[in-house]
Amino acid sequence: DDADGVDEESKQDQLEEVRENPEGEDLTSDHGVKISDTDNSLKAGERGPTIMEDFHFREKMTQFDHESIPERVVHARGTGAHGYFQPYEDPDLGDEYDDLEEVTKAKVLTKPDQKTPVFTRFSTVVGSRGSSDTVRDVRGFATKFYTEEGNWDLVGNNMPPFFIQDAMEFPDLVHAIKPEPDDAIPQASAAHDTFWDFASLKPEITHMIMWVLSGRALPRAYRMMQGFGVHTFRLVNDEGDSVFVKFHWTPKLGTHQLVWDETTKLWGKDSDFNRKGLYDVIEEGYDPEWELGVQLFDEEQAEEFDFDVLDPTKIVPETEVPVRPIGKMVLNETPDNFFAEVEQVAFHPGNVVPGIDFSNDPLLQGRLFSYQDTQLNRFGSANWDEIPINRPVADRHNNQRAGFMRQEINEGKASYKPNSIGDDDPQEVPAEEGGYEHYAEKVDGTKIRNRSDSFEDHFTQARLFWNSMSEPEKDNIVDAAHFELGNVDRMEIRERMVYDLFNNVDHEFATRVAEGIGVDPPESPGDELPDHDREDPSLSMENRT
Ligand code: HEM
């Protein structure tokens, strides 16, 4: 694209080329032959068997038989919408930085006159494609920015910590939380033995469990939900200098939850509650908005924290580093075709643009492999990036070729480098002219399969969360623990949750949980725990409404 970058409509214009809205036209086969009868198969005789020759029947039925693609292995249930992202003019970055260009060269974040088209998909994690919206679960919040410098995918959740610290544990987590393998029960709830068995043996999960038991797991509407990039990422400027960043989406309407009784009624009465909510408000013209905020901190600050910024079970408390709003996202257009847009959109945290880079968070590092890999399973082809909803608006030009369902017709003889005979040889672009260059982080180490000692405090931030809750929020968390653990058959799992996890968070909390699930009250952990009563007011939903 030209120097002025993409415009808000550029993705819609691109999609327009593949939208098909024929009106009043003839019915044809997929190959353009006009069809005279689409209700009756071709038969041998008045009441005879159907004949192989019936190409219209075979084509219609084959297409139907192949309509479904595998659902996402996680986050199968979701919905999405188009919109735009626009950076603010002169965002307030506090005393440390004058403007964003000081920390990143990413044009999508720094050009206030530019509206970058986006597509955002919200999702639950555990349930299958047809499950209910209002279950107790984490929500996905994934945004594809079609920037002038290529696609950037910010693939986040509505809670800022995560369950585990290393990508190696992800298949275990998902096997534990999905329906149990023998009876495929429960469909979309965490209230079962395998999940709590895993949790009770995995103390690093404690912080995330506090969020999952809270109202955060029952969002009232997608437009009333925060989003978080979760991992520490890097921003990189023109000079190649880097600061760490945490990304935050903050809804203009405030952060609101449903209460448990509402959610359980909705499972039955309106299992599309969140999906419909998003669709309806956009159709009615009330376009939902979120602010994108950043927490910026450098290596020296990171070393001062009492947790490791590479550990995805930790947040950077807002009391330590404030969130600075830098722009807004507006979702203003519903999809035309759910399958083509919402189902086929394929995110990948490895899609970054110059100025945005990764940290060594071992969960993020593993995700950089997993998403590309899983799209091969879902689409059966490396050409999933050619599907209209996934195509960048920025130009693409390279020597990648062929494969199942290739859409591009690449001309010429040379699809290799170096070559001397191609007229259209794609040229590498130096970093100064916009080529992506990875941040030159110094890395020097001994090969080792390990867990860093700096990842070992599993309870301090869980306690920070508990301490930051209002009394009604605490009551809701205790009630949720009663329901969830009350559905666990094995008593030893309930006991481990109380004694090994919750009692290390807060003795009173553990005692209240124990009372409701037939577990003897725990003894006070006494002096073994670091004694502090820190709070971060931003964690309470009451302060976010
Ligand atoms: C979806 C893997 C952690 C957010 C997925 C999918 C896979 C996956 C395979 C399905 C993608 C598809 O079929 O299109 C992993 C692995 C993780 C991990 C291996 C850890 C090692 C996370 C974390 C977050 C997250 C920490 C939040 C920051 C999402 C979201 C989606 C998703 C939002 C749905 C994207 C959509 O709407 O299509 N993940 N995930 N995941 N993941 Fe992760």
Automatic annotation (TrEMBL):
What Enzyme Commission number does this protein have?
1.11.1.6
Q: Which UniProt keywords apply?
A: Heme, Hydrogen peroxide, Iron, Metal-binding, Oxidoreductase, Peroxidase
Biased composition range(s): Basic and acidic residues: 8-37
Q: Name one GO biological process term.
A: response to oxidative stress
Q: Which residues form the Catalase core domain?
A: 28-425
Q: Where is this region: Disordered?
A: 516-545
GO molecular function list: catalase activity; heme binding; metal ion binding
Broad class of enzyme this protein falls into: oxidoreductase
Superkingdom of source: Archaea
Q: Which reaction does it catalyse?
A: 2 H2O2 = O2 + 2 H2O
A GO cellular component annotated for this chain's UniProt record is: cytosol
**Cofactor(s) named in the record:** heme
- Similarity section: Belongs to the catalase family.
Can you name this protein? Catalase
What organism, scientifically named, is this protein from? Natronolimnobius baerhuensis
Which residues of the entire protein appear here: the answer is: 37 to 581 of 750
